[in-house]
Inverse folding.
């Protein structure tokens, strides 16, 4: 997969609040799919699994089977990559626009 | 619009390589829609305008009419916001995982 296509998948995976919340849940420790289903009672099991699939395809989650359980581990590396390649430059751009505005207003 | 819905729009808008390239073109200076159509000969005018609409809905572009021309200005602020609220924390998470791995390997 090209790096563009990989980035597309990461951005698409992040473009849903529930998927962002699911990643937030995995930040401190891996969780089984069952634990995630319990943590999000407003979604049924199928919806949780569908979101997990999207996250896994974007490589944001790595799943490991242990017996009958599936442990979902956060992989933050693709987010770091879009950050380094792309996001950080725009964040600095916004900051420099704000600084310029502030300087104009001050003087 | 909720902050979740705004973030969704930003991530969705960034989830296309041509839209990311179009923003890249606007980083140094605003450009008219005609200039952007010329800069991307592989897309027809309608496709360029469709992408501009998605970027404008995500507030990543601010358009100003001057006579018959439409000038597209980059607004990097929504990218800075997702950076501050969300991306930077995961980027640090990835770095700390890498540091731990390196420390483990170093013994």
């Amino acid at each position: 997969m090209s790096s563009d296509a990989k980035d597309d998948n990461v951005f698409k995976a992040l473009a849903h609040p529930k998927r962002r919340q699911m990643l937030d849940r995995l930040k401190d420790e891996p969780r089984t799919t069952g634990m995630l289903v319990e943590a999000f009672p407003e979604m049924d099991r199928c919806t949780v699994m569908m979101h997990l699939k999207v996250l896994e395809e974007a490589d944001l989650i790595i799943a490991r089977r242990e017996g009958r359980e599936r442990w979902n581990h956060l992989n933050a590396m693709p987010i770091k990559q879009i950050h380094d390649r792309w996001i950080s430059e725009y964040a600095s751009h916004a900051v420099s626009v704000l600084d310029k505005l502030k300087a104009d207003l001050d003087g």
Observations:
- The radius of gyration of chain B is 18 Å.
- The helical segments of chain B are 3-14, 17-26, 33-39, 45-57, 77-106.
- The CA atoms of residues 5 and 58 of chain B lie 10 Å apart.
